[in-house]
Amino acid sequence: MDIHDIQIKNNLILAPMAGVADRAFRETCIDFGAGFVVAEMVSAKGFTMGDRKSAELLHLSEAEHPAAIQLFGTSPQIMADAAKRALAFSPDAIDINMGCPAPKVANTGAGSALMKDLPLAREIIRAVVKASEVPVTVKFRTGWDADSVNAVELARICEDEGAAAVTVHGRTRAQMYAFPIDYETIAKVKQSVHIPVIGNGGIRDVQSAVRMLNETGCDAIMVAQGALGKPWIFQQIAAYLNNTIILPDPPPEQQMLYMLRHVQKIVAYKGEKVGMREARKHAAWYLKGTRGAAAYRRKCGELNSLKDLEALAAQVIAQNMQKTQEETE
Ligand SMILES: Cc1cc2nc3c(=O)[nH]c(=O)nc-3n(C[C@H](O)[C@H](O)[C@H](O)COP(=O)(O)O)c2cc1C
User: Fold this and answer.
1) Where in the chain is the domain with CATH 1.10.1200?
2) Using CA positions, which residue lies closest to atom 18 of ligand 1?
3) Over residues 250-272, mean pLDDT
């Protein structure tokens, strides 16, 4: 698929996830076949006021391209200024967040709250498109709530104002992250605009990925929670879409090695102290579904070093081998 002149390797995209989809996770998902990644959202206001943390979040490594940087805010001018400055980090696209439901974002009128103010949403898109030398994409939900589903209207505004693609998350803001996914509205958006439409929401495995593609006709799919502790989901979806091969989950010992490889990256990029604190939640996600998971996941809160994690992984592998042996005897 192409987003304007950016060629993406395939139509499998890693979603932006604040506090989760950092450089280490994005690189991990790329290793498993994600064709495009979006960095964690950054406040346009904070960034333009010189906030150091925002600038750190915007850093993209060589290995991550093609990648988008995502901005949120309510002021067209500040958003445009932020987009211009963000070009220093060499993004392949700038994504505008119009879907975030978190009160600290939506209560300021940004994120999903912009779906209640389409004239302002239009002004923001126009200003950012004008300021940006790279394609601009917009990510939003189906609407604010079930009584105000207006994704088609917003997608048309995006197209009118020169956006290169839209991502539609098939839930309203009122739904937060709950099911069901509204495939019908995503399909209507696809039928209403000519720019590429990326379908997002509820993709947890190959089946739900195929469902998103088939029910909406979308050009690409974006995976968020389905990749947590399971970055190989991209490989599984690609194997099915390209060759109708159903790849099982990797065996537990392989999963533990993938977890260690991911956490080694976190530690390499953030240092062991900060890195291991952040790695705890990832470790708990990787351990989900393994034998004796509940007890192991409780231990994740105590992980302070890579050595601690290696020891935990070794225990999981040993217990798994023992159980498998018992079962075959
Ligand atoms: C922990 C977390 C952080 C998120 N952060 C962002 C963000 O920074 N920007 C954004 O547009 N969406 C963000 N989202 C929403 C996801 O990108 C995605 O739209 C949503 O989770 C639906 O996809 P899923 O059902 O595959 O999880 C976040 C979601 C989660 C779970």
Assistant:
1) 252-328
2) 224
3) 97
Q: How far apart are CA 30 and CA 246, in angstroms?
A: 20
Query: Probe ligand 1: pick from 225, 234, 281, max atoms within 8 Å of CB?
Result: 225
Give ranges for CATH 3.20.20.70 in the chain: 2-243
Using an 8 Å Cβ cutoff, are 130 and 163 in contact?
Answer: no
User: Which member of 100, 158, 218, 300 is catalytic?
Assistant: 100
**Ligand 1 mean position, distance from CA 20 (Å):** 9
Map residue 175 onto helix, strand or coil: coil
* Closest ligand 1 atom to 141 CA: 19
Pairwise CA distance, residues 32 & 195, whole Å: 27
Locate 116 and state its tokens.
């209640």
**Contacts (Cβ under 8 Å, ≥6 apart) of 27:** 61, 63, 64, 265
Q: Which residues sit opposite 200 in a β-bridge?
A: 169, 222
The C-alpha angle with vertex 27 and arms to 213 and 57, in degrees rounded to 5, equals 100
State the closest ligand 1 atom to the C-alpha of 95, by its place in the atom list counted from 1: 11
CATH architecture assignment, domain 2-243: Alpha-Beta Barrel (3.20)
Q: Assign domain 252-328 to its CATH architecture.
A: Orthogonal Bundle (1.10)
- Judging by DSSP bridges, how do beta strands 6-7 and 36-43 pair with one another? unpaired
State both tokens at 14.
């890693």
CB 168 within 8 A of CB 151: yes
Site to probe by mutation for ligand 1, drawn from 72, 169, 233 as the one with most ligand atoms within 8 Å of Cβ, is 169
Residue 100: active-site member: yes
Each residue of 43-84: pLDDT tens digit? 999 999 999 999 999 999 999 999 999 999 999 999 999 999
pTM above 0.90, yes or no: yes
Mean pLDDT of 136-141: 98
